[in-house]
Specification:
Rossmann fold; 18% strand; two-stranded antiparallel sheet; Arc Repressor Mutant, subunit A; 8 helices; 2 domains; seven-stranded mixed β-sheet; alpha/beta; 208 residues; homodimer
């Protein structure tokens, strides 16, 4: 079903399909054509057919797509077949905001938060205690953590990432403005560069 | 210098160039070849030459790029030629985290924060007072606000966006998981869908 040649651009569109299909399911919509999907998602119908063909094409001529099947298939492709254990490193404003985000409903369980600042260690956010960084290695191993979310200061980010790689973390979700360099190519890094998104906005503002 | 045919993919890469060039400048690097730029940024040298050619090509054969010139040119392309006045709608954890982010150093000045919750109105974050939503229209007009950052709940997002469009906001930076529908095509919307980024991460985790 999966295909290693699928382009990054397609992969980046899949979560959007997933999000819209979830909404449709919640609204009781069972069946949809690529044309209707196009109207709500904003990609062309031909783009949608092409995208979904990458994964075996679940549509049927004259019927369209079964929303629930498509939602489940895309969920599987996206790896939403198990619960991922996550931790947050850096429990400042952003770390606490992310802890309050409801990622658990998507299958990402928050198993720990870590900080070096004694003013926040010991606090609990949504029943998760903020612990001292000294406990990081032990907790990663004991709790079988898959994903670490880095919300530290810019200066701390690279050394935290080095530690995480050493402790066997499989994936890093990076919210700092640093492009992390990880020698271990087994570790997946996904960057959220907020400033890049903001600069794209200012580009379009200027173009007007 | 600018070219309307520049693809979205190129535009999305520009902030990354900008970020790296800034670091080089801070480290006293004055001149760089596309090969060296490639080594640090991770795009191919040919990709870099192509990207920068879109904007008139600032490199010189046998010399490479002047870092400061390139940094300034890209900054201009990205619209970083003035200060943008911004406000944050929704002063919960995420709104407060963003208020503490140092976007001002990039030319984005936080001029106000708004919430409906009396528990947070009146508080100050970095000298900016959180005000009641009733004051939104007046403040947008008085303070000449360019960009509104939406950090409200999912349910409030669309109606907040409708109000913002009505009050003359030019651009919306949307942190809610809602794909906003704005009838006024003059309003630019840039979405930060955190969950999409997380699902991309789980895709790669599963692929391993």
């Amino acid at each position: 079903m999966t295909n290693n040649k699928v382009s990054m651009a397609v992969i980046r569109r899949l979560p959007k399909y997933h999000r819209y299909l979830k909404e449709m399911l919640e609204n009781g919509i069972n069946r949809i054509s690529s044309k209707e999907l196009s109207d709500v998602i904003g990609f062309t119908a031909s783009q949608i057919r092409q995208d979904l063909n990458n994964f075996g094409g679940f549509g049927q001529q004259g019927y369209g797509y079964n929303v629930e099947d498509l939602y489940n298939e895309i969920g599987q492709i996206l790896g939403l077949v198990k619960t991922y254990n996550t931790i947050i490193i850096g429990a400042g404003n952003l770390g606490q905001a992310l802890a309050n985000y409801n990622f658990a409903s998507h299958g990402f369980k928050l198993e720990g938060m870590f900080d070096i600042n004694p003013k926040v260690t010991g606090l609990r956010i949504r029943d998760v205690e903020i612990k001292d960084m000294d406990l990081l290695e032990e907790e990663i191993k004991n709790k079988n953590i898959d994903i670490a979310i880095i919300c530290t200061s810019r200066d701390a980010a690279q050394s935290v990432a080095d530690d995480l790689a050493k402790y066997g973390i499989k994936a890093i979700w990076n919210f700092t403005p640093v492009d992390l360099k990880i020698n271990n190519h087994e570790v997946i890094v996904e960057n959220v560069h907020l400033i890049d998104s903001l600069l794209t906005l200012s580009y379009f503002l200027k173009e007007k």
